[in-house]
């Protein structure tokens, strides 16, 4: 008798809640425990999750949905919001403090670095804007021992209106 093919294990957690900064903090704390229970190193995954939650809470309308899916050595982090008054884009590249090298955001400013940071920490990052104003952010984060070293020319992919 032939053995059945081995299937890759998959763990999924999802929830929908009002889009507030307080709830973003609560979800991050809850996911810290969840990832620990799954045996997943939290590091980059929690930074990515926190940035996407903060964007949804600050710019994304009334509700946000969060989904985590862990398979093998990768974690999908997905955050969807219900609509926004503005497109969540990183700050425009500007000259860095030295040498005229291009850098994201204003070196003196405090904002506009979240999405480029998510892009660097993720193996893949896609932002989709729905015709209804909603935003879907999906990041694939490597959680295993072999971690990719990001290249400085990596950008994020923007899809939609």
Automatic annotation (TrEMBL):
Alphabetically sorted, this entry's keywords are: Kinase, Serine/threonine-protein kinase, Transferase
Domain Histidine kinase/HSP90-like ATPase, by residue range, is 17-134
According to the lineage, what is the superkingdom?
Bacteria
Q: What Pfam families does the database record attribute to this sequence? A: HATPase_c_2
Give the signal sequence positions.
Answer: none
This one is known as Histidine kinase/HSP90-like ATPase domain-containing protein
Q: Please name the source species.
A: Kitasatospora terrestris
């Amino acid at each position: 008798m032939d053995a059945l093919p081995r299937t890759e294990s998959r763990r999924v957690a999802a929830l929908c809640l009002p889009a507030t900064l307080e709830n973003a903090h609560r979800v991050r704390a809850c996911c810290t425990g969840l990832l620990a229970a799954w045996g997943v190193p939290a590091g980059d995954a929690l930074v990515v999750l926190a940035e996407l939650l903060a964007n949804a809470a600050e710019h994304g309308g009334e509700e946000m949905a969060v989904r985590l899916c862990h398979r093998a050595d990768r974690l999908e982090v997905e955050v969807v919001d219900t609509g926004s008054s503005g497109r969540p884009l990183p700050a425009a590249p500007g000259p860095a403090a030295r040498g005229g090298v291009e850098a994201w955001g204003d070196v003196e400013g405090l904002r506009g670095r979240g999405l480029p940071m998510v892009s660097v920490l993720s193996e893949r990052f896609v932002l989709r804007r729905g015709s209804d104003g909603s935003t879907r952010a999906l990041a694939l984060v490597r959680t295993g021992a072999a971690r990719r070293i990001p290249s400085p020319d990596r950008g994020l992919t923007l899809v939609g209106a």
